User: Which sequence fits this backbone?
């Protein structure tokens, strides 16, 4: 029987929400790893029973958990995230050099072909890889070593590598994004990297079209068009038609082009979703109305989707990894809020309902479509 | 027998909600107790001490016998009461909040 499993990371544990293909009734499992911050939970695309979770604490550091049975049971795997060689320094908030220090794993990206291979994006920004199911980690240090690393500065949330996208057409092509360094691409499986920020303009940096220094919030693509990238930047929704070689703005008629989350419809490569947030200093939706905006034209022209979402006195945020889609025939869209709701749409965004409420603040939402 | 009391987050991590008892050979120090603790529960590696330097994580404290031992040398002997099992060695998450 087909169905959906929604993996939710929160400030105080993880939750697993499951439903059959009707998506009308949801079972809630959790909290798992109670009391710990769960930055990200994501399943392997080739083995849905294999799930990885980033469990972290400002007090007690980083743990990576792995499940081999679809989240029923979990076991800790390796947490040895050691930077390659002498890690050197990056810029601190005040512009002084600051040693690279590992803080946590923000994002886990399982391989598209091998359940034992997984990438981890960490703070302070770096990319790690495991080929043994998370037991051992080694840094893909060409990213930090490509030259601009000493000039990277943290965003308000820390200097984190939060986005990892592997091209479904070419597994050697990897896109990552770092706050606040920008987007980078490797075409050799992570050995060497270069910035891909041409066309981005950020008023918060001295040279607003600099090669690095942009606060990219998230990047998404559709597997059928792997050269078309959509980006929610700090401000601006951007699009690239050439795998990041150049970007152009597609914010169009959005009420605010600040936001964190962005994703693409499972079956329509030109249908894109964002959740506008008022501003970088006001992290809640414009007018206190929670609205997802959908573009069916690959950007520029956006329509608000609000049916079933709170349209008054709503002051939650939707964080960068807190939106995902399922792959059922009628694409489902899911997002979580810092108020602890997870909203789902069974009709590509036309209508919404909360499938769970009152969780701790939601950090991440991922969806597995089960055969 | 050395008794160790862990904070709630680490109890959750090891799935053991009571105090932990360890056999620790002489000398009984912070280092030898934590080595034995991590040998029993490898998942604790990196949660109390930095996994490479073995220095105490910044927001972890060590208490025993109503004393804060956090800033003592990791190789100093622990109090007799801890070595004899009369008092536990506390691993504590530093108080924070507002």
Assistant:
């Amino acid at each position: 029987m087909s169905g959906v499993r929604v993996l939710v990371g929160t400030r105080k544990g993880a939750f697993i929400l499951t439903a059959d293909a009707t998506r009308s009734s949801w079972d809630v499992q959790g909290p798992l790893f109670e009391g710990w911050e769960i930055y990200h939970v994501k399943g392997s695309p080739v083995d849905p029973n294999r799930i990885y979770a980033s469990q972290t604490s400002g007090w007690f550091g980083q743990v990576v958990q792995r499940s081999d049975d679809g989240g029923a049971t979990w076991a800790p795997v390796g947490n040895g995230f050691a930077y390659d060689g002498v890690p050197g320094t990056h810029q601190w908030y005040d512009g002084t050099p600051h040693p690279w220090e590992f803080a946590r794993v923000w994002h886990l990206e399982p391989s598209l072909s091998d359940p034992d291979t997984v990438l981890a994006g960490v703070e302070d920004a770096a990319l790690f890889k495991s080929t043994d199911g998370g037991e051992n980690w080694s840094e893909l240090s060409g990213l930090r070593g490509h030259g601009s690393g000493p000039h990277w500065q943290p965003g308000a949330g820390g200097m984190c590598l939060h986005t990892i996208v592997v091209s479904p057409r070419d597994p050697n092509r990897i896109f990552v994004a770092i706050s606040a360094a920008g987007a980078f691409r490797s075409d050799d499986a992570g050995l060497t990297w270069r910035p891909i920020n041409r066309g981005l303009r950020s008023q918060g940096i001295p040279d607003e079209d600099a090669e690095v220094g942009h606060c990219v919030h998230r990047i998404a693509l559709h597997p059928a068009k792997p050269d078309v990238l959509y980006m929610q930047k700090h401000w601006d929704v951007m699009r690239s038609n050439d795998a990041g070689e150049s970007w152009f703005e597609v914010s169009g008629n959005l009420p605010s082009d600040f936001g964190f989350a962005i994703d693409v419809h499972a079956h329509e490569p030109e249908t894109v979703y964002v959740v506008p947030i008022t501003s970088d200093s006001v992290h809640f939706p414009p007018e206190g109305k929670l609205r997802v905006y959908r573009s069916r034209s690959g950007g520029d022209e956006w329509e608000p989707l609000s049916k079933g979402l709170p349209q008054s006195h709503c002051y939650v945020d939707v964080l960068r990894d807190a939106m995902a889609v399922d792959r059922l025939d009628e694409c489902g869209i899911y997002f979580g809020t810092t108020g602890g709701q997870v909203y789902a749409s069974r009709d590509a965004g036309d209508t919404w309902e909360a499938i769970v409420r009152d969780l701790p603040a939601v950090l991440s939402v991922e969806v597995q479509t089960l055969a | 027998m050395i008794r160790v009391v862990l904070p709630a987050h680490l109890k959750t991590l090891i799935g053991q909600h009571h105090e932990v008892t360890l056999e620790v050979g002489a000398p009984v120090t912070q280092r030898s107790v934590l080595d034995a603790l991590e040998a029993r529960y490898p998942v604790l590696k990196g949660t109390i001490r930095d996994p490479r330097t073995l220095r105490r994580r910044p927001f972890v404290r060590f208490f025993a016998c109503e004393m804060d031992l956090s800033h003592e040398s990791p190789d100093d002997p622990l109090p007799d009461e801890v070595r004899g099992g009369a008092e536990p060695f506390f691993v504590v998450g530093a108080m924070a909040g507002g």
